[in-house]
Amino acid sequence: MPKNTTFFRNKLAVWYLDNKRELPWRKTKDPYFVWLSEIILQQTRVAQGLPYYLAFVEAFPTVFDLAAAPQEKVLKLWQGLGYYSRARNLHVSAQYVSKNLNGIFPTSYKGLLELKGVGDYTASAIASICFNDPEAVVDGNVYRVLSRVFGIAIPINSTAGKKEFKKLAQQLIDREQPGTYNQALMEFGARYCVPQNPQCETCIFNERCEAYKKDLVSTLPVKLKKSKVRKRYFNYMVLLSENGETVLNQRTAKGIWRQLYEFPLIESDKEVSENELIALEPFQSFSEKIEINSISLYNETSVVHKLSHQHLFTRFWIVEVSEIKQKTIPFSEIEQYAVPVLIENFISNFSVFKN
Description:
The chain is an alpha+beta fold.
């Protein structure tokens, strides 16, 4: 058991009482709303996630409503949040709770782990907040606070580190009010013990914070370096027919953006000119389904879209055609489809450009 556990809990509780944000999911212990907020806030800041939460609650006021919705509607509402597997898993779990559990969420940590898309952190959060189950949450904010206050240099993304921090968090948790404690710890990390330039001089823990005393704040927590980021080069063919039709394809393969829509895509191993693009074998196959009048590059400078393990260098090619020998949609209806934010931004800018 670490030293000063009571001091840590008490200080945190007083700080949270005075500083907590009034957030809609904190006004309820209904597991549906807490679950929804936790899934949305995975790898997402509160400021960004809050409008999405409100939109989902309005569109799907119950788990039955979410379960009954078409997946495309769920993905469209999620558009812009990224990590779209969260939205697909959200929908699958809603259907499971609705059909298999009569709309009643599991009431235990272990039971919650059975839901698709729910891991240790999310199960701990829901169990503690909704059912007073003393399961400690460990997310990026918690890693940062605990590593600094208690001076722990084990890499947080190592197997040993995850085990050590979970053990410490479990020892520290307030067993009488675990939900409040968990939210207080996450809130403190998100708003005060921030990654860069925290205000340590006025911190409630500065007298006993090991990182502050040893000038290690900027080096803790320790994180192992990620694998090399992969560079990919996307060329989107934006078809425009004489009668205002275009083509969107749904991504069905595993990987990024599964189930979302995109323009016909030709991937190259580098940025290519028009002549180089036309010479690519995938372009030859693509051009068999259309009669091309002209091709022009919309953006000379590639849009760089950064994902966790890959950077996408993207160009949009405007392909005016007289005939399209495949399923088309009116360009005027394109905003109805769930697309990656990269394409959403293009559509928005191009629509202004067209007008």
